[in-house]
Design a protein that fits this description.
The complex is a heteropentamer of chains A (511), B (409), C (102), D (194) and E (504). Chain B is mostly helical and 409 residues long. In chain B, 64% of the residues lie in helices and 3% in strands. Chain B has a two-stranded antiparallel sheet. In chain B, helix 7 runs antiparallel to helix 11. Chain B is globular. Chain B starts with a helix and ends in a 5-residue tail after the last helix. Chain C has a domain of 65 residues: Helix Hairpins (Orthogonal Bundle), CATH 1.10.287. Chain C is mainly alpha-helical. Chain D has three domains: 81 residues, Up-down Bundle (Four Helix Bundle (Hemerythrin (Met), subunit A)); 37 residues; 57 residues, no CATH class. In chain D, 80% of the residues lie in helices and 0% in strands. In chain D, helix 1 packs antiparallel against helix 2. Chain D is globular, with a radius of gyration of 23 Å. Chain E has two domains: 267 residues, no CATH class; 220 residues, no CATH class. The longest helix of chain E is centred in the last third of the chain and has 32 residues. By secondary structure, chain E is mainly alpha-helical. Helix content of chain E is 72%, strand content 2%. Classes of the chains: A mainly alpha (511), B mainly alpha (409), C mainly alpha (102), D mainly alpha (194), E mainly alpha (504). At the C-D interface, helix 1, helix 2 and helix 3 of C face helix 1, helix 2, helix 3, helix 4 and helix 5 of D.
Chain lengths: 511, 409, 102, 194, 504
């Protein structure tokens, strides 16, 4: 008996997942190269290889720009959202790898697996942004989560790193279970887990969501499923009350990985959230909006308020990242073109800024990350004016001060929410931004306005790390001044989001 | 009677009868096997073996069993009460259950009811077998842990690692069988092995080989011919799963007293003992089923339903003999060698073999290519398996220790 | 197949999932918490299988397969992390992991 | 009352009983054992619903591999033989229980309500599944779905597994042997000590 | 010559200069100081081009330029100047060289100091000339950062506290401004744009207007500052370095009033009209409260700071009474306050450089050791309290006159405020300058040096000039004021019957 005779082979188009394939391939090559050649001291070529792979992945993603189709049995969406996200994620990965190289060299940590795991994580994040089926989304989520669990524990000499990995892992696994239950209930509600109901959204834009394909009007089960999906994704974007892991994981992880988590995890989870809610579940927006609004408001408030009392800079930025999740959520809630493109823009620029910030932190922290407290940054300006200026720039961007990219991001997502009629959510956002400004200011004040601790050791500043800082700073200013290219690119990512009729008509408040 | 039949249906009645008969037969066989082992080993060591009870000492096992049954029950103070009690049962039951998917003969027809001589022809038969094998670990793990003392714990830790490792190899070695048979059902697999080698179309159309293959027309079409690497892996892994020599590290008496069995006595000990032998029988029967055509063999008109059973039993006994032979002649492996064999030899070999089988059996690939791949990979696998452990070749210096251990750690 | 209505299976799954949640939240040993999470995953598997039966397609069963793979991957990584930390701390108790507090 | 109902009843009681027992078992090994029992019972419920392959895999992977790994780790650590049930955060336990009860009630309601919703759609799909199980058989039918529609997720699992393996390799490496950095106490830990 | 875009040149000269200063090595103190002074003077010179090019009698915007910035969003770089902004821009560029001169005593981190100071100027000029709401907001916020650092890095005493307070108050307010701008952006019909002139005619429901006006007002009221949002001001003014105090008092506070004039009233005339009584009440409270608190101050700088609260009360009062006199007076008073308070801070800075204390009790009899200084101080103080013949009188008189037409009763407490101003200023003058020298440290104090003369004399000259001959100033202010008043009074929608906020 031959199985192949009765089996229709699926059509295999690799265009949509080419970046992911490349990254996994490069990761495997790195592992093989590492195992084959001896363990020399200077292994720059591993970092180089991963950087090349990431650049290649970005190039491949750019090549798919303008595609708009479902591939591989409707499991993958090759569309603007995916392309934009993949390019951004590749950029995050690139910065992380370069930063990681200096970091690992300084702390004398064995490195090859670091690059492989970062590549795996980036590949997982990319797949998540492109997933057109919940199970693909879940597997992608797990791929990058598993990689990150290990990367968080990468400071092998540090117990804190291990503890944070454990907390991150336990809560991550816990949230996965909720996400899975959401998938299961979705499957129960509609008989499939596909986000696009198996329909070809290009041919029939009207059914570019999976509800319309459902032969029933009773969507109660689907709504419940949505709730569980929100819980699952809420953990990954660190929305209150699912944020408990964030400060611990951020604090214990190696700084480059902390930055990568803040940038990449958030981006991937939000891209999935956007696809799920603003595309697939768009017709159900009146059901999920209240849920997300509660989440967003709680997240903005808790993140901003709790950050104030932090003494550890990494922890402070962890809480700030929670607050930022709330800000981006307002874009998701808006559920219009501007909201989607704004959220993407926000995430991309936030990622760059936060990676830059953690680059500076990792430099200041020194060996084994011994100096991460706010007090360790006293008077940093007088010792390293350029680094300090860069960090100030990142903090200003996070605070949303004009001429930085962070301001534009806030402007766009808040604008989208205003456009959608959720002004009061934006009022909360604005208030919490003001609260948030306080602790960014606290950091700046510490760096500029206090005296340098005379015992502070001199900082050796690696070339790659300072390059990362410079690139991030230029990007932060650049996108703050001339943001049209990026926002246009983000807008092209919204093609999949609404049917033409809905795009033209304004969305009434309250859905 | 008819009320019961009405209530449960005839199928249920037949199932119950089959279960009772099979398990009774299995237990009986096991008792005989114990005697058989003692006799064979004695023979190999030029001793007489058990000879007092019954003809050729045939009732010796029975006597031992009665002794163990009436022995005082004993539980160490540090033992975990319930787990300690459950462990022997947990060792015994999966082994017994594993037999449920093994077909001992062809179908039998009573009137208008046709009954297959297999307890349950599951369409996931092989997986069921693996599942029961993996549950078998618990008996040993729990026994070691529940005893509350050092040697049993060490034994059971060893055993856990060993069983997980070799289970993987065993599972992988069964994939090619499923591939060529196109089914996971044991009955299907046996049926697929009917006929003779001549039916294997692999050499068709290749001038010389086709003629040569005609010579094999009289040889039965058992998977052992085309799948012997899978068989080797399966059988080695099977021996390891039964914890028998040369893989009996969990109960290595020279190192761990008696491993996980140290604290057990009486009827509980007997259950472990029984479980191990049941396991031997099941593995042998499975090997027969998967690689040696199961019940396949020449049948005659006289009691035609009985002949398959007889063939099956003969083949199984041959394998049991092989088990005993191993025990009599092979020394115990060192623990790191055991892991090395499992992870670095058996599993890769099994993976390569899956690929070979897949390529060879893929329709649409040119036969020349298939043949080339077959021969090429065959050579690779042979070289691979034949290579020794590279670490043995160079002496380990203190400086290089850190590096050398990296591979295992 | 059975005559038992699907809702009974779903009820079982719901109870198991909830017990998993409660256990994961109340227990303190990391390994035990992890086991309760596994229980939650198992409950989800049952949901998948039951819905698969209700819809009469096999997608649900395929999804269970993926859940199993994920559970395995999580288990190895998670246990490795727990092992790592416990070897240094001599305790798998979550409350003993207290270096990170806000 | 049929065999199916009977088996379901047994599976239900065993699964639920084990799960509840997990909550109250002090010893990690006992928790693991109860979990195994629950998993085996769940495999039974899978069988009852015609998911043969999944049932077998559930036992092989979950009960046979994952839980053995758990036990292995518990035994290897050899600490915490029994967990102190003293609660450091006194409100957390009732809170969790309340939350759990709420969740259970919610999901229960949904399970029943969802059934109604779904059964109005298709009714019981058992018939279709039975037909599939008969021809071409559960495993084959599953394989066809898996290797056609779910090809990408299937391949994605390979990436997941490789990532996990690499990760475990990293985690398992000894601290001192490779890294020149001797394990030392970080400032945060010092504060903790003081 | 006149077709050059003098306005934009003026805006960006300081920023360019700041960037150039960045290239100067940080230990070249002299080069840094001179460079900064040259840049500031160059900006002032360029601003004279604006003055020259400004057409008298024209109410609209002049000398502007309009470039597309982010066209997809309707954001442009649009600038322009009218009678309201002209004098504030001039004031800014005029005071900046003096502020640079006042910074001679700064001794640490000179390079970033001047960079911040000059980029602050660009921000302020941008605020006063931006005609695109987005651009306005960008400049508005851009002022914040350099000022924060100026206070925080080079300030005195509790500078970190003061800087943080200043930053947070202002940021919190301005976020509401942003929100309101966004809302307006989406609410306006037609092509979405941030362009001020396009948005000007937007018809909005009354409720929406009120909400948006309050959004704008929240930001501006903090900056002005109106009671009760003023508490950041005394700290910031007191702890800032002299140049910072000058800029804060003279220019930054005007940003709030200017915002009200430019955006608050024209964009939401109905709301402005409806809320005018409330705002006037706050303004009068500010006048009296500021003056009362100023009396009990023991720190000269703090006293001057509280006097600002009172003076800005006058400005706001003038803006909202709804008469041309009030409006013109308010606008002129902005200029006057900038000059006189700026001058007071410069003078206090001179004193601080010598004695390193600002407490009134530490001085006494200074008139004996520093006679010229005492005289100038008296002149400036008199200007500040509105003595006829000096600039302060013109503005305050016009405001009171305007107020009397519409809100006659409010004139009484406002006048009372003037009396109080006389009390606190003259009393302080008496304590500091009259009598015998009680503290020996004050005996040998030197009078003005050349730099200080250069710094203070232009201001004094201007103070006297405006007091004597305000016509050129009022000529340029009045057309715009007239337009504003008509906008405020001729509001189309009446408050009655449309009190409920409606979503767009």
């Amino acid at each position: 008996m031959n199985l192949a005779q009765e089996f229709s082979q699926p059509e295999v188009q690799l265009g949509g997942i080419a970046p992911e394939l490349l990254l996994v391939g490069v990761a495997l090559i790195i592992l093989v190269v590492d195992a084959s050649f001896g363990r020399g001291d200077n292994r720059w070529y591993l970092a180089g290889l991963s950087a090349l792979g990431l650049a290649g992945a970005a190039a491949l993603a750019i090549m798919t720009w303008g595609d708009n189709e479902l591939q591989l049995s409707n499991m993958i969406a090759a569309d603007g959202l995916a392309a934009f996200s993949k390019v951004s994620l590749a950029a995050f990965g690139l910065l992380t790898v370069l930063l990681g190289r200096d970091y690992l060299a300084r702390d004398k940590i064995e490195e090859s697996e670091f690059y492989a795991l970062v590549l795996f994580a980036v590949a997982g994040m990319m797949l998540m942004t492109a997933a057109a089926d919940l199970i693909v989304m879940f597997l992608a989520l797990e791929t990058f989560s598993v990689s990150l669990y290990v990367l968080v524990a990468f400071r092998r000499a540090s117990l804190a790193s291990h503890e944070s990995a454990m907390k991150y892992f336990l809560l991550g696994a816990f949230s996965s279970a909720f996400f899975l239950l959401g998938i299961a209930l979705t499957y129960g509600a509609i008989g499939s887990t596909n986000l696009y109901g198996g329909a070809d959204p290009v041919a029939e834009p009207g059914i570019a969501n999976f509800i319309t394909g459902t032969p029933t009007d009773d969507l109660s089960l689907l709504i419940v499923a949505t709730g569980f999906l929100v819980i699952g994704l809420g953990f990954k974007i660190a929305a209150v009350p699912f944020h408990m892991w964030t400060p611990d994981a951020y604090q214990g992880a190696p700084s480059p990985i902390t930055g990568f988590m803040a940038a990449g995890t958030k981006f991937a989870a939000f891209a999935a959230l956007l696809r799920l809610f603003d595309a697939s579940l768009f017709p159900l927006r009146s059901e999920w909006r209240p849920l997300l609004i509660v989440l967003a408001v709680a997240t903005m408030i808790a993140g901003s308020v709790l950050a104030i009392v932090q003494e550890d800079l990494k922890r402070l930025l962890a809480y700030s990242s929670i607050a930022h999740a709330g800000f981006v959520l307002t874009g998701v809630i808006a559920a219009n073109d501007r909201g989607v493109s704004g959220a993407l823009f926000y995430l991309a620029t936030y990622g760059v800024a936060v990676l830059g910030a953690f680059a500076v932190i990792s430099l200041v922290a020194g060996r084994d990350e011994e100096r991460v407290l706010l007090a360790d940054h006293r008077g940093l300006f007088y010792e390293h004016p350029l680094l300090t200026t860069a960090l100030t720039l990142f903090l200003l961007s996070l605070a949303g001060v004009p001429v930085t990219s962070g301001f534009v991001g806030k402007l766009v997502v808040f604008g989208a929410a205003v456009e959608a009629g959720y002004t009061w959510v934006v009022v909360v956002g604005v208030l919490t931004s003001a609260i948030a400004a306080f602790f960014y200011l606290k950091v700046m004040a510490t760096m500029f306005l206090q005296e340098r601790d005379p015992d502070a050791p001199a900082l050796p500043v690696g070339r790659l790390a300072s390059g990362v800082v410079a690139v991030a700073a230029v990007a932060t200013i650049g996108f703050g001044l001339a943001w049209s290219p990026l926002i246009n690119a983000a807008e092209s990512a919204t093609i999949f989001f609404q049917s033409p009729q809905e795009q033209s008509a304004p969305i009434p408040p309250g859905g | 009677m008819s009320a019961i039949v009405d209530f449960f249906g005839i199928a249920v009645i037949i199932a119950v009868v089959k279960v009772v008969i099979t398990f009774a037969a299995l237990l009986g066989t096991t008792i005989v096997v114990v005697w058989f082992e003692r006799k064979v080993i004695a023979d190999m060591q030029a001793r007489i073996g058990p000879s007092r009870w019954g003809p050729f000492g045939l009732f010796q096992t029975l006597a031992d069993g009665i002794k163990l049954f009436f022995k005082e029950d004993f539980r160490p103070q540090t033992a975990d009460k319930w787990t300690y009690a459950i462990a022997p049962v947990a060792a015994m039951v999966p082994a017994l259950l594993g037999f449920a998917v093994i077909p001992v003969g062809d179908e039998v027809t009573f009137g208008d009811t046709t009954v297959g001589l297999v307890m349950s022809d599951l369409n996931v038969g092989i997986l069921y077998f693996l599942a029961m094998g993996s549950l078998g670990v618990y008996g040993i793990v729990l026994a070691g842990w529940a005893s509350g003392s050092k040697y049993p714990l060490l034994g059971s830790i060893r055993s856990t690692a060993q069983l997980i490792s070799y289970e993987t190899a065993m599972g992988l070695s069964l994939v090619p069988i499923a591939l060529v048979a196109g089914s996971l059902s044991t009955v299907d697999i046996v049926t697929a092995q009917a006929g003779s080698v001549g039916r294997v179309t692999f050499f068709d159309g290749i001038p010389v080989l086709e003629q040569i293959s005609a010579i094999f027309r009289f040889i039965p079409n058992w998977y052992i011919w085309s799948q012997w690497p899978a068989f080797v892996i399966f059988f080695i892994a099977g021996v390891a799963e039964t914890n028998r020599a040369p893989f009996d590290l969990p109960e290595a008496e020279s190192e761990l007293v008696a491993g996980y069995l140290t604290e057990y006595a009486g009827i509980r000990y007997a259950l472990f003992f029984l479980g191990e032998y049941v396991h031997v029988v099941v593995i042998s029967a499975m090997a027969v089923t998967l690689f040696f055509g199961g019940w396949d063999g020449p049948t005659f008109s006289f009691l035609s339903w009985l002949w398959p059973v007889i063939w099956f039993m003969i083949k199984t006994v041959a394998f049991i003999y092989l088990f005993i032979w191993f025990r009599a002649s092979l020394p115990r492996l060192r623990y790191d060698r055991l892991m090395w064999l499992g992870w670095k030899r058996l599993i890769p070999a099994a993976l390569v073999w899956i690929m070979v089988t897949a390529v060879v059996n893929t329709a649409g690939v040119a036969r020349g290519v298939r043949l080339g791949v077959f021969i090429g990979l065959f050579v690779v696998v042979m070289i691979f398996i034949a290579r020794g452990d590279p670490r043995q070749l160079k002496p380990v210096s203190p400086q290089s220790q850190g590096r050398a251990t990296r591979g295992v750690a | 197949m059975t005559e038992v209505a699907p809702s009974y299976f779903l009820v079982l799954a719901a109870l198991l999932f909830s017990i998993g949640v409660v256990g994961a939240l109340t227990r303190r040993n990391a390994i035990v918490i992890f086991m309760f999470i596994e229980l939650m995953l198992n409950a989800v598997n049952l949901v998948f299988v039951t819905f698969s039966r209700m819809w009469g397609n096999l997608d649900g069963q395929v999804l269970v397969f993926f859940v199993l793979v994920v559970a395995a991957a999580e288990a190895v990584v998670g246990l490795a992390i727990i092992l790592l930390i416990t070897r240094r701390r001599e305790s798998a108790n979550v409350d003993d992991a207290h270096l990170l507090r806000w | 009352m049929t065999i199916g109902t009977l088996v379901f009843g047994v599976a239900f009681i065993v699964a639920l009983g084990s799960a509840i027992a997990m909550l109250f078992a002090r010893n990690a090994v006992h928790v693991a054992l109860f979990l195994v029992a629950a998993q085996v019972a769940l495999a039974l419920t899978f069988l009852l619903q015609g998911a043969f392959f999944v049932a077998a895999v559930q036992i092989i992977i979950y009960a046979g591999a994952i839980m053995v790994l758990f036990l292995f780790v518990v035994m290897l650590l050899g600490v915490d033989r029994s967990e102190a049930l003293v609660e450091p955060l006194p409100f957390q336990r009732p809170l969790a229980l309340g939350l759990g009860a709420l969740l259970a009630a919610g999901i229960l309601y949904l399970a029943v309500a969802g059934i109604d919703a779904a059964s109005t759609i298709t009714g019981d799909g058992s018939g279709a599944l039975l037909a599939l199980n008969r021809d071409p058989g559960n495993v084959l039918a599953l394989a066809r779905v898996l290797f056609s529609r779910y090809l990408l997720p299937f391949e994605a699992t390979s990436a997941l597994l490789v990532a996990a393996i690499v990760g475990v390799m990293v985690l398992a490496r000894r601290v001192g042997s490779i890294s020149a950095v001797a394990p030392r106490i970080s400032p945060a830990e010092e504060r903790e000590v003081a | 010559m006149n077709d050059l875009p003098w306005l934009d040149i003026t805006i960006f000269i300081p920023l360019g200069g700041a960037i150039l200063l960045g290239a100067v090595p940080k230990d070249r103190v002299g080069a840094l100081r001179t460079g900064a002074l040259i840049v500031a003077v160059a900006a002032f010179a360029a601003s004279l081009g604006i003055l020259a090019g400004f057409e008298v009698g024209e109410a609209g915007f002049q000398l502007g330029s309009s470039l597309s910035w982010i066209s997809e969003w309707g954001i442009g770089y649009t600038t322009g100047v009218d009678g309201v902004s002209l004098w504030i821009i001039m004031l800014t560029t005029f005071l900046m060289p003096l502020a640079v001169l006042a910074s001679w005593s700064v001794d640490k981190q000179l390079k970033p100091y001047f960079i911040f100071l000059l980029s602050l100027e660009t921000g302020m000029l941008g605020v006063f000339s931006a005609l695109d709401l987005f651009l306005f907001y960008v400049f508005w916020e851009a002022v914040l950062v350099p000022m924060y650092f100026l206070i925080g890095l080079w300030g005195y005493g509790r500078r970190v506290y003061a800087a943080t307070k200043f930053f947070l108050y202002t940021l919190a307010g301005s976020l509401f401004l942003l929100l309101a701008i966004l809302y307006l952006y989406f609410a306006a019909p037609g092509e979405p744009t941030f362009d001020y002139r396009s948005l000007l005619g937007t018809e909005l429901a009354f409720g929406t207007q009120v909400l948006l006006f309050l959004g704008f007002f929240a930001s501006f009221a903090v900056k002005i500052p109106l009671v009760p949002l003023h508490t950041w001001l005394p700290d910031a003014h007191t702890e800032a370095p002299t140049a910072g105090s000058v800029m804060l008092a003279a220019v930054l506070l005007k940003m709030g009033a200017y915002g009200l004039i430019r955006f608050g009233i024209p964009l939401f005339p109905d709301a402005a009209q409806a809320l005018a009584p409330l705002i006037i009440t706050l303004a009068v409270i500010g006048i009296v409260y500021g003056a009362l608190i100023a009396i009990v101050q023991r720190d000269i700088k703090r006293l001057v700071a509280y006097s600002s609260v009172a003076h800005l009360g006058f400005v706001v009062l003038g803006l909202f009474v709804g008469t041309i006199q009030g409006m013109s007076g308010g606008i002129l008073q902005m200029l006057n306050h900038g000059l006189s308070t700026g001058a007071l801070f410069l003078l206090v800075g001179v004193l601080y450089d010598r004695r390193h204390t600002r407490l009134i009790a530490d001085f006494g009899g200074l008139a004996k050791s520093m006679p010229v200084y005492a005289g100038v101080f008296l002149l400036v103080a008199l200007s500040s309290l509105g003595l006829p013949g000096l600039n302060g009188f013109v503005g305050e008189f016009l405001v009171l006159l305007g107020t009397y037409e519409t809100y006659a009763w409010w004139v009484i407490p406002a006048t009372f405020g003037i009396v109080l101003a006389a009390i606190y200023l003259l009393w302080a003058y008496q304590r500091v300058f009259h009598g015998d020298i009680t503290n020996e440290a004050n005996r040998g104090l030197s009078d003005f040096n050349v730099r200080e003369y250069a710094m203070i004399l232009p201001v004094v000259a201007l103070i006297v000039f405006i007091g004597v001959y305000p016509k050129p100033f009022l000529d340029r202010i009045e057309p715009s004021a007239q337009k504003l008043v008509s906008q405020l009074n001729d509001s189309s929608v009446l408050p009655e019957g449309s009190g409920v906020a409606e979503a767009p």
